[in-house]
Amino acid sequence: MTLNQLIRIQSIIDKRAIRSDTQEFLKKKRYSKSKNEWIEYGDMHIDHFIRVVANGHGVEDDLLMYVIDGFMKTLVKSGKMQKLSKEEFLQQIQKEKKWN
Question: Which domain holds residue 74?
Fold first, then answer.
């Protein structure tokens, strides 16, 4: 059962609408290493979500990876950079220390 499904069930049982900030959170994405793609929190099964939170993989790390992914896609589209994996990109900027 996904978080989206659980929240819908809760809203029916409680006879209350789903809060807007809850809906916004469920639409946020995190990078799934196992699927090698971005998935919304709402599409995650509850046990997987609990595992992610318990292991300390917070939204902040996911947001950073989301920004890096968007930045890389923009550079590739504009022809300013060859296509690199996220790992290769991070290795490259760490090697060149371009963040200082």
Answer: 3-96
DSSP 2: B
Q: Burial level of 13, CB count in 10 A (0-12/13-18/19+)?
A: exposed
Residues 19-68: pLDDT tens digits?
Answer: 888 898 899 888 887 888 889 999 998 888 888 777 776 556 666 666 66
The count of structural domains within the chain is: 1
- The total number of residues written for the chain in this structure: 100
CA 31 – CA 39 distance, rounded (Å): 6
Q: What is the CA radius of gyration of the chain?
A: 17
Structure tokens at 25: 């959170």
Q: How far is CA 32 from CA 10, 21, 49, in A?
A: 26, 23, 11
Instruction: Judge contact between 81 and 68, C-beta under 8 A.
Output: no
Overall pTM > 0.85: no
